[in-house]
Amino acid sequence: MFEDPSSNWNVTDKERVHLQAPPILVQEYTENRAVAIFSMVFLGVGLFVFMNILTAIVYSEFRGYLASSVQSRLTRRRVATRAAFEVLRFADGQVLLFTESDVVTSDRVIKLIENVRISQWKKEALRAAYISSFAESDLNASEFMQLFRTLDLSVPPFQVSLSVWSMCV
């Protein structure tokens, strides 16, 4: 019922083989297996090198963008911190143009740390930095900026639950 279409034609066996398989390097693969292994290794190493070069090009293109993005984020954060200092400084409604004491009181700083919307471990890091570095004293602008720079440097502490340790024992 289903016949080979090449059987109706006057085709030799050699030509029939070429009809069944593409002629591109097939004879080299069937006659010598080392060529097949070499081709696979060459293709793998070539793709590895190509992907490394492509990754290096993409990295070098976006490195400047990433650096400027991080720098602008830090600049915005520092401007916002300075603005927060100025708002806290005049929170009583006493706007004096020439004041000798350009400080924020300790109770305002503690209240700010309690009410700010950040994660709990960051609040604890700020509170610990404030107590250890400034001993809950009033802060001037540079000290206030230094206190909030701890948010840039701090990372969440490594917490291990006791249940994990009890399972190991």
TrEMBL record:
Residue ranges of the TM segments: 35-59
Organism: Paragonimus westermani
Phylogenetic placement of the source organism: Eukaryota, Metazoa, Spiralia, Lophotrochozoa, Platyhelminthes
UniProt superkingdom: Eukaryota
Keyword Transmembrane helix carried by entry: yes
Keyword field: Membrane, Transmembrane, Transmembrane helix
GO cellular component, one term: lysosomal membrane
Protein name: Ion transport domain-containing protein
Coiled-coil ranges (or none): none
